[in-house]
Specification:
Layout lengths: L6 H11 L14 H18 L6 E5 L5 E4 L8 H13 L2 H12 L13 H16 L2 H15 L2 E2 L4 E2 L10 E3 L6 H11 L2 H17 L10 E4 L6 E5 L11 H18 L2 H18 L23 H17 L3 H15 L19 E4 L4 E5 L2 H16 L7
Antiparallel strand pairs: 1-2, 3-4, 5-6, 6-7, 8-9
Amino acid sequence: MIQTFKPALVLLLLLLSGEALFAQPTTSGVPVERVVALAEKQYLAYLQHYPDSTQHPRSTKEDGSILLTSSRNWTSGFFAGSLWYVARFTGQEAWRRRAAAWTETLEPEKNVTTTHDLGFILYSSYGQGFQQTHNPKYRDVLLQASTTLSRRFSPVVGAIRSWDFPQYSYPVIVDNLMNLEMLLWASKASGDSTFAHIAKSHANTDLRYRFRKDNSSYHVLDFDPATGKLLRQMTHQGFADNSCWARGQGWAIYGYTMLYRETGNPQYLQAATRAADYFIKQTNKIADHIPYWDFNDTAIPQVPRDASAAAVAASGMLELSKYAKGGKKYYSAAVAMLTSLCSDTYLAAPGTNNYFLLKHSTGNKPSKSEVDAPLAYADYYFLEALWRYKSYSTLTLK
């Protein structure tokens, strides 16, 4: 007689025997199509209510109204970037036209020397647009922005200055890693190795001081601009100088993974895997794997979550899973976070949430700004993570 087993029992037996195979990635587990359909509804409604492409959605104010910004704000490029991702998912020219309209009002920022955020503003918008259209005007904007950003580099410190805030001497924040991708692209696009030299120098300086022994990250490194000596390791948006701000750890995962992709330097891959290991260790303590805003807030669990940190980390870990030994671990962690982000707890219902996709992000809790609120960059990295999830579904992980 042939003995039959129910599928659940077979899986349990495999798990108990230690012979269960890691499932080949598919797009059936995370509801990508559902989110894309929601994005289309939300963004079409947004465009109908707020047609001015010089005003870019950032978050929600305390009174519940939408927070819009000019192109000068560091978050201004993310809505255009989200529109470009919808264009990728749908393949529709109408979405490319909408994305272009919100992208091209950002062009004045290419000459602004008072911010390190040009990559956030322009590579998330013009960069996405150039990948899809190969518009030479987009290339020119990105190259000019890279030239402008390079002016904030100090060869003495070996890094790009992040802020001009008077309370710091020469701050270099973990977020700044994200702007290096534009410089590395510019080096390849132009043939000018100066851009890559600056990006690698910044990354090497950052790597020297960014992480603690437990692989958690400092938010701010402050240097003496005259000598390049490290003065302080501290926080600006985290709970304490010795705590780990969750989104900052996400920036580190994403940033060093990208740097490995672009340079092949194994030190960057090692940094990314260690940062990801810490993130996974912390989020494994949380039932739905969505991090608290800071992993070391002493009031946990009675503190806000940060969906934006989960979105950034998930996108970074999906790419990391392609390169790292044991990549299945990073893939699984990313899928766990994406699964929760796609649940009703975090994903907005159509017509709500001021037309953003994700709820429950934390922008800057110490400043009591954008706490438990939607954020434009949460949506952008969420859509990017879903695109990577869909695109990586045929990969064989290490």
